[in-house]
Amino acid sequence: MRHDIPADAQTVVIVGAGFGGLEAAKALASAPVRVVVLDRQNHHCFQPLLYQVATATLSPADVAWPIRGILRRQTNAQVLMARVTGIDPQARMVHADTLSLRYDHLVLATGATHSYFGRDDWAGVAPGLKRIEDATAIRQRLLVAFERAELSDDPDTVRRLTTFVVVGGGATGVEMAGAIAEVARETLHRDFRRIDPRRSRVVLVEAGPRLLPALPEDLSAYALGSLRRMGVEVLLDTRVTGCDAHGVSLAGSERIEAGSIVWAAGVVASPAGAWLGASTDRARRLEVDEHLRVPGFDDVYAIGDTAAARDGEGRPVPGIAPAAKQMGRHVGRLIAARASGSTPPGPFRYRHHGDLATIGRRAAVVRIGRFRLKGFPGWLFWSLAHVYFLIGLRNRLMVAFTWAWNYLTLQRGARLITVEAGLGGDAAEERPTFPARPAGSAPPPPR
Amino acid sequence: MRHDIPADAQTVVIVGAGFGGLEAAKALASAPVRVVVLDRQNHHCFQPLLYQVATATLSPADVAWPIRGILRRQTNAQVLMARVTGIDPQARMVHADTLSLRYDHLVLATGATHSYFGRDDWAGVAPGLKRIEDATAIRQRLLVAFERAELSDDPDTVRRLTTFVVVGGGATGVEMAGAIAEVARETLHRDFRRIDPRRSRVVLVEAGPRLLPALPEDLSAYALGSLRRMGVEVLLDTRVTGCDAHGVSLAGSERIEAGSIVWAAGVVASPAGAWLGASTDRARRLEVDEHLRVPGFDDVYAIGDTAAARDGEGRPVPGIAPAAKQMGRHVGRLIAARASGSTPPGPFRYRHHGDLATIGRRAAVVRIGRFRLKGFPGWLFWSLAHVYFLIGLRNRLMVAFTWAWNYLTLQRGARLITVEAGLGGDAAEERPTFPARPAGSAPPPPR
Fold it and tell me: Does B132 touch chain A (CB under 8 A)?
């Protein structure tokens, strides 16, 4: 610890080391306070690139960094790996599974999780994409689907296993659908002998009238066209009414038999509001004032996806990484000012820099103010921006190298299945005998 | 599939895509046969570098490659992910969980697993290091041990959690012990505030009189000295009599309280011998003749760690990667000659090229014939050799870059814990309250 932290220094507890929490911690680096960062994981996860771990392009370590490593030089900061279970605001205590901690200032930055619109039973068959474990689980599901299809003699089973459904047409859904289509059509197609991965089916289901609703309509239309050119089936104005181990049911009684479903619809905040007993909105986000303080609680702040923040004009602040970082920085500066007795900053003002989404390897949509890019120039810009915002020179070099290599060779290097054959799988699948054909007959055509 | 494989081509089934199995498959690339490679995993694992995944230096994807990707261009080869459960040599059938397969030639290349000398109950608390999952499990255990120590108020708990025992003084044990000591003393020591990782205790236990028994005595002595200089306690002539969740018991009633135990002693072959009902040696390896055929079975071969092979002078062939590759190549050429009717090669002759082992980042021992290297020159040679033998240019570049970066910055980038707080852990551990000291008193000294 720094030797010159005053003995009576206040303790700032930050729950969550995502984009918001880390910025808050860093903004307190010079303040005369003790900073304690709690997270239930040991790493910070760069969520915008999780879909690339899920589709076997990047490795987990490319998009995650140990929180301790990030804050190691910040001598007034301490990192503890713990899962918060509750808060006692009167006693100013945070309770976690392995410790209890008294705070002078509390910053809640616990992010968001997936909402299944009341159907939490779907979560087991339709995983979301918020953490590293989600990404590796989806990756495994995708790769195992092709392996099992290769072993199968039943055309219906093969068709189901090579059908992938993505639910939700926002940026995450668009990116996942495009990446799965690329993996199937370009990376894997020469790896298999009995199946033809190019005949996989990728379906993107969106309940609203267009994709990427946060972007202007012409960019939505561009994304739609790009996905369709990649062979993705896009179903708009279509709601999902059921998810099970064999596929999805859609409103209007249509059913798609699918071996893999990825959930990219419906985001809801973490239960920080329940810990406080404070008022939250429909998405469980904490109501905050213009300084991101939680009304009615002394010295409690909420930032990022956990907070229902509004910009200067009363519009909701979007749940994207740059917004979380701006909120973290604001709260950090505010607490620093209060602790050192200097002038606090004015109310929080959100500055929207722009929107980015990528569709496969060659197309992206970029909007910054009036500046727009599409196609390959968009993808290049998107890549540079993401590499820039990664943490650490080493990861920037690794990810840039990986993308350049993949782009040039169409390979995807991170195709690890870490579960062995024989675990999971349907009892209903037939057990083929090889060779099904007698010696001397032709090999079966690709299916 | 190649269109010019004769319709009556023989089927070669290779079980296991490790070093031996892959070389056998590649040696059959031009033969008029159909090659089917079965493996229960989808990837080939570069075992010599697993200890670097286990100590958070490399990522799993750096040392593993999809088998399909490796064999994609070999048009007479097909890869199926399946777990073999038995063999019917009379019917010439291989039975697996998801398929049955008729063979004309069968190559068993299923490798080795760990032996606990009859105490298989130790496997849960003292994992070995043969597969990617082993490495990530050990990595998790090591990193979580430091996290839990950071949270603990009890000095005995801290001491136990930061004590690491490695059982077995062969190359794997020496490499693990050196790497753990490096991680604790160099990489992590500024990441923690309440504990001092430099005060971790790393103990290497070897039942015999010296380390690296396969190498000459002066190199054993050098390894011993290097490890001790790194702070590793080396106990020779010491047998382990018990392993449990809190430590190890040694012959002579000594006990070491330890939070993590890694098993690098005792190797035994996979159960391929049991599948065949053939005779095996004490380590469960299949007896083979001078052509690596299993006596008494038509057209069944065994290679690598699964086989009790002998070199031209009757000495046992060591269980190392180059030996497995030589055996795989021999069997591939033998089968190719038989299938095409050409002159078969002579008996298998093992050529021992040399020995390598590394101790931490700056020291290694190398022996090639009369040529010896130690220290940093040995490490450089060791690094170049391992990079050379990796599969694929991309992985060679990534690993070389990672090692160069780590060497220069002392960082280890792959420090991911993929399990969240609150899962696992002892009920017996105290639950500390922070701050244990009242406001105004000094922070506790590092423990």
Answer: yes
